[in-house]
Amino acid sequence: MSIKLSHDILEPYTINGTILTTLTNSGYLMYTLNMLKSLKPYGLDKKIFITCIDKKGSNALKKMGYDSYCVDETAINPLSKFCPWNSTDYVKICYFKLELIYNILLYKNVLLIDGDIVFKKNPTDDLKLWCEDTIFDVFCQNDSVKNTDTRNLCTGYMFIKKSDRLLGLYDCVSESGRSKYLKCAFDNNDQTYFNKFVKPYCIVNTLPLEKYPNGKMFYDNPTLDPVLVHFNWVQGHLKMAKMKEHGMWLIGD
After folding, report:
1. Helix (H, G, I), strand (E, B), or coil: what is residue 173?
2. 3-state class of 67 per DSSP?
3. d(Cα 253, Cα 245) in Å, to the nearest integer?
4. The pTM is what?
5. What CATH number is associated with residue 142?
6. Is 200 helix (H, G, I), strand (E, B) or coil?
7. How far apart are CA 151 and CA 146, in angstroms?
8. What pLDDT score does 160 carry?
């Protein structure tokens, strides 16, 4: 299985030279649908380039009115289930996130959005500013609870500008690139890859936690008025419980 994209595939989803994208599978589909529903008030739910790992999930998306790029068209796919954090299959799924970024960077900027995010405001307002910026290569969410602590940035929400340098840094498909990712396997995977092999070699703007809180930041400060909430810092379907607790589970039972 591998991701192979083209300019023609991506062009209908382009916003300000950027592809808003997410990666999902059958087991994660309800979170993806919840994220998409949070974007509907801004007319963006059908503008996300959805990459689905398995045919079952891709078919389900199509029945619900969403187009998706299917990675594997075979009927049976071991990566179709919900894969807990840092499990063997989770490691494989995280590699597809890197491969997705790499393939989009061949043609466009990338705004990667994890499915456990819920939007409270229109994200394209800031996206326009990021596209016009002439200093930073990457705008990335922080995974700490202090704006001054930027040691561990969160790859669940990140904007990456198209450039030869970033394309080279995200080369996970060559032999050396795959070797680098293997060093990150079971160590926060694509997030470790970014913090270790990308962040030190480009200019990164860390997004303010007040506007782009991670799970821990929001759980401790639920009165924030953010652009989005990323429901990480919990594992498994505790994500759904947290979304329901804060009134952000939008797709019903």
Report:
1. coil
2. coil
3. 14
4. 0.92
5. 3.90.550.10
6. helix
7. 10
8. 98
| CA dist., res. 204 & res. 56, Å (int) | 37
Residue 51's SS3 state is: strand
Q: Determine contact, residues 159/109, Cβ cutoff 8 Å.
A: yes
Q: Which residues, other chains included, contact 10 with Cβ-Cβ below 8 Å and sequence gap of 6+? A: 19, 49, 104, 107, 108
Q: Which stretch of DSSP H or E encloses residue 52?
A: strand 49-54
Q: Residue 193: count other Cβ atoms within 10 Å of its Cβ.
A: 26
How many domains, in total, are found in the chain? 1
Give Cα 4 distance to the centre of its chain. Answer: 18
The answer to whether residue 59 is domain-embedded is yes
pLDDT 10s per residue in the chain (253 long)? 678 899 999 999 999 999 999 999 998 999 999 999 999 999 999 999 999 999 999 999 999 999 999 998 665 565 655 545 555 566 677 788 999 999 999 999 999 999 999 999 999 999 999 999 999 999 999 999 999 999 999 999 999 999 999 999 999 888 887 777 776 665 657 888 899 999 999 999 999 999 999 999 999 999 999 999 999 999 888 999 999 999 999 997 6
Q: What is the pLDDT of residue 182?
A: 73
165 within a domain of the structure (yes/no): yes
Which residues, including other chains, have CB under 8 Å from residue 111's CB and lie 6 or more apart? 18, 19, 20, 21, 123, 127, 158, 159, 160
Q: By C-alpha distance, which of 13, 25, 253, 242 is closest to 117?
A: 242
Note down the domain range covering 124. 7-245
The structure tokens listed for 195 are 């913090």
Location of structure tokens 């450039």: 163
CB 100 within 8 A of CB 51: yes
